């Protein structure tokens, strides 16, 4: 709001001088932008499920960066419920926050949430996921300000490169996916299998869901080993499932190698003790911080133009370079 200050001054002197208007002064409002800049920004973080270590680390990184920037951060946990996430985003819109960082549970429903926020004049960015069904990373939804995420497809390719080195003579391979409906079941697998096909000599004999948990990952690998005792390599698309798979391999006296995704503490520990061959290092704490920084830049005019997908580095990790990946979840 434009502010006007009036200052009166009593001029002592000749009567002619009393007629001078210069004795009264009025501000031009030049201090208004400074007042606006002092307004604390409020950003909402609509998260996936903070009982899961990865989204929880995103939240912690976001909180740290918000504190550094002097931003108020409102964190909400959908607990993996799409309807609840929708309701929480609507609550943030009603609160008239300045921006919303969405950790989408599903790309299709997320687009509707972005549309609602955009219609209310609220900036939206996403982290750890995309908006819009079947959208490619290089083509972000136009109503977003930014995307900060892992290169899921590239990570699958990195896992494939490690698989070729782990089993240079080829052999049978089994894939353990997450819960049904998750995009990662495709994005983390497509380039992995392509790397095997390019090398030649590999056959994917089974694909089963491990539902993102150690227990279900172990059960899936047990089932596969019962039918295919000579599997040479398991690719589990999360470290939790990969660790469970390692337990199944040990119980079956198999020599199969295991590759995971994530760089989680359990995965790094498993690489060190030989349970896993390798993983791909993800950094959710840094990711949350980057998302808050991007939103801050968008709200303060430093980030403009069409939205872009921002990937951070996700290197492959084996026993040879395991200390290079400091677990963030």
Automatic annotation (TrEMBL):
Q: Which Gene3D superfamilies match?
A: 3.40.50.2300
Stored Pfam families: Peripla_BP_4
Matching entries from InterPro entries are given as: Peripla_BP_I, SBP_2_dom
Q: Which residues form the Periplasmic binding protein domain?
A: 43-302
Give the record's keywords alphabetically.
Signal
Q: Which residues form the signal peptide?
A: 1-22
Q: Name one GO molecular function term.
A: carbohydrate binding
Q: Where in the cell is it found?
A: Cell envelope
Which intervals of the chain form a coiled coil?
none
Q: Name one GO cellular component term.
A: cell envelope
Give the similarity note: Belongs to the bacterial solute-binding protein 2 family.
Instruction: Please name the PANTHER family in this protein's record.
Output: D-ALLOSE-BINDING PERIPLASMIC PROTEIN-RELATED (PTHR46847:SF1)
Q: What is this protein called?
A: Monosaccharide ABC transporter substrate-binding protein, CUT2 family
Recorded source organism is: Asanoa ishikariensis
